[in-house]
Amino acid sequence: MVKPVIYIHPYDNRNLCYKIADKIKASIINIHAKSALIDFESYDIFGFGVGYDTGKNYPQLLKFVENLPNVENKKAFIFSTIVITSEKRMEKDYEKLLNLLKAKGFVIINDFNAKGFNTSSILKCISEMDS
């Protein structure tokens, strides 16, 4: 039986992480939890809810991934909510995290984003008007 987990940074716009976790029956673990890696080896699929601060990945998430053990045959996907999106933007935004995950031995099975609020820049005002 496949056992998925989603690691999240505490910011979760519109509860996207919880909606995805519910659909795929995944556990959700905050990357800041002291117990974040206790059952790491028991999971088969790893999701990473990507947070941004003014267009850059949250450094805490990147540091968390840097500290993960190397893996073999573990699958991963990343996702985020974002106000302004395009394929080119997504590639640029996800590049650092994707490279870290691949270097750890993860097989990337998907990456995607969904429209959401911007909570950390001047675009916050625009995104809140759009809702």
Question: Summed up, what is this model?
Answer:
33% of the residues lie in helices and 27% in strands.
Structure write-up:
The chain is α/β, with parallel strands linked by helices and 131 residues long. It has a single domain (4-130), classed as Flavodoxin domain (Rossmann fold, 3-Layer(aba) Sandwich), CATH 3.40.50. Helices cover 33% and strands 27% of the residues. The protein is built from four helices and seven strands, in the order E-H-E-E-E-E-H-E-H-E-H. The strands form two sheets. A five-stranded parallel β-sheet has the order 2-1-3-6-7, with helices on both faces. A two-stranded antiparallel ribbon has the order 4-5. Helix 1 links the parallel strand 1 (4-8) and strand 2 (27-30). The N and C termini lie far apart (39 Å).
List descriptors.
single chain; about 130 residues; alpha/beta; Rossmann fold; 5-stranded parallel beta sheet; two-stranded antiparallel sheet; 4 helices; 7 strands; globular; disordered C terminus
